[in-house]
Design a protein that fits this description.
mainly alpha
């Protein structure tokens, strides 16, 4: 078996991801969730799917920020309680 060049490997991989995205789309699966977990699949999404992907990314970032802020608030509260006890 001959070795593939970098361009041939890239073409082969792109074809595989394109097929996977299309298969998931045909099965009615959530291709946006697949693209969130596998960044190589993003370029095979439709425009509406890409918009949904960006919305989900923004929602996820907001959730992460909110959880971090809650954790910071808990830490600050624990220090405040300790200061009043001393």
């Amino acid at each position: 078996m001959s070795k593939l060049s970098a361009a041939e490997r890239k073409e082969r991989d792109n074809e595989r991801f394109s097929q996977r995205v299309n298969e998931r789309r045909e099965k009615g699966e959530d291709v946006v969730a697949y693209a969130l977990t596998n960044k190589k699949a993003v370029k095979f999404l439709t425009k509406s799917e890409k918009r949904a992907l960006n919305e989900r990314k923004a929602e996820r970032q907001e959730e992460i920020k909110q959880k971090e802020q809650e954790e910071l608030n808990r830490i600050e509260d624990s220090f405040a309680v300790k200061q009043y006890e001393d």
